[in-house]
Amino acid sequence: MDKVVGATEAVAGIADGASIAVGGFGLSGIPWILVEALLEQGAGGLTVVSNNCGVDGAGLGLLLAAHRIDRVIASYVGENKEFARQYLAGELQVELTPQGTLAERLRAGGAGIGAFYTPTGVGTQVADGGLPWRYHADGTVALASPPKEVRTFLGREMVLEEGIVTDVTLVRAAVADRHGNAVFHAAARNFNPLAAMAGRFTVLEAERVVEAGEIHPDDVHLPGIFVQQVVALTPEQASRKQIEKRTTRGPGEAER
Questions:
Q1: Model pLDDT, residue 256
Q2: Among 140, 142, 158, 161, which is most exposed with the fewest C-beta within 10 angstroms?
Q3: Per-residue pLDDT tens digits for 149-160
């Protein structure tokens, strides 16, 4: 099945209030073009599941600045002042989740596993409840996380975490074929395959699209069964790769 479509068509059906998993790690491997297409499309009231929420002026930070996101499930707030501002001002609900737990929640959702036990977070507010999910404008807590079930396995306490399934997932691959089989480069592989699995409808933008059979089966990181649509990027679009911070030093200089 040829799944290649344009970016505008790919996001056209995303409705207000949709839950969306977005791949990437920092700004590495984020679906730049699909996020911008969604910004232009206009859907709002979104719940976003992502390792982080971009940076000011880039990636998911664009949707945040436009107040199109109501809730975020993430493991990291840093590098995005608007993200922190909206959270502390009570404009945004944020469910902070340990990074490895978030990855496994996405994988579990994609594998049809409703929940799992992990030792990560036992003895903290992750398990005991009380993490501020949303603040009032005056800084008091409007909504806090509930306590989670804790059980002992093999002599070790573990907390129950639920799998995540989203309405839509947006991801980016280095190479994909027209059937959606995909290969990710380096750190882009951290969350993209897991996020793709968790979506009921997954759209993948690819820096290079090849014909079916050109990717060796042993090289496939994400099988096409998890992908419903593929967006082929132009060379210019594929070359857009921003980083959060540029650190430089000259010969003999200390890093700054």
A1: 54
A2: 140
A3: 999 999 999 999
Q: Which domains are assigned to the chain? A: 47-161 (3.40.1080.10)
- Alpha-carbon Rg of the chain, whole angstroms? 19
Q: Is 32 helix (H, G, I), strand (E, B) or coil?
A: helix
Q: Are the beta carbons of 47 and 199 closer than 8 angstroms?
A: no
Taking only the tens place, the pLDDT of each residue in 30-67 is 999 999 999 999 999 999 999 999 899 999 999 999 99
Determine if residue 101 is left, alpha or beta; phi over 0 gives left, psi from -120 to 50 gives alpha, anything else beta: alpha
Task: List CB contacts of 232: < 8 A, sequence separation 6 or more.
Answer: 4, 206, 209
Residues 191-220 pLDDT 10s: 999 999 999 999 999 999 999 999 999 999
d(C-alpha 226, C-alpha 210), whole Å: 18
Check residue 243 and give its pLDDT.
Answer: 75
**Side-chain half-sphere of 104: how many Cα atoms within 13 Å?**
14
Q: Coil, helix or strand for 185?
A: coil
Whole-angstrom distance, CA of residue 162 vs CA of residue 213: 36
DSSP state, 70?
E
Distance CA 243, CA 27 (A): 6
